[in-house]
Design brief:
Layout (H helix, E strand, L loop, with lengths): L1 H9 L8 H7 L4 E4 L6 E6 L5 H10 L1 H4 L17 H23 L4 H26 L4
Antiparallel strand pairs: 1-2
Helix pairs in contact: 1-3, 2-6, 3-6, 5-6
Length: 139
């Protein structure tokens, strides 16, 4: 569901230059306040952009807290992902699971860790979309 909402919202992956611009579009970057005596990050995210995708990704990451090592198989043939895209997606999932575990082990709350990983997930979904576009000759 997260990927479907992401693809429907982004539509054309080439409209973003890099992963940071995708994270910014979905409001998953740290906010800043540079006026007054204190300057710098406030500790929260900007929450700019599409709240539906942001919420879907963060809520979808709730499964990381309960993750077991068993990988779900993609149902049936003809799902459209090449072996290279599927392998990269598996690497991304494993990296996100480690990142979540590391953040929680360092004392971050589960929700803070989910939002931090969500920021990386939208960048990775964009990168995977670009891979698919290149494979299909749309890049």
């Amino acid at each position: 569901m997260c990927a479907l909402a992401f693809v429907a919202t982004v539509d054309d992956f080439s409209r973003f230059r890099n992963g940071r611009s995708v994270r910014s579009y979905f409001g998953l970057v740290p906010s800043r306040h540079d006026s007054g005596e204190r300057t710098g990050r406030s500790g929260g995210i900007t929450k700019a952009g599409d709240a539906t995708v942001r919420r879907a990704v963060v809520e979808g990451l709730s499964s990381l807290a309960n993750h077991r090592d068993a990988r779900k198989a993609v149902p049936g043939e003809g799902h459209g992902a090449s072996a290279a895209v599927e392998a990269e997606a598996v690497r991304c999932n494993e990296r996100n699971q480690r990142r979540f575990g590391d953040l929680v082990a360092r004392g971050k709350g589960a929700n803070v860790a989910k939002v931090a990983v969500a920021s990386e997930v939208v960048s990775e979904m964009w990168a995977l979309g670009r891979m698919v576009d290149r494979e299909l000759g749309r890049a």
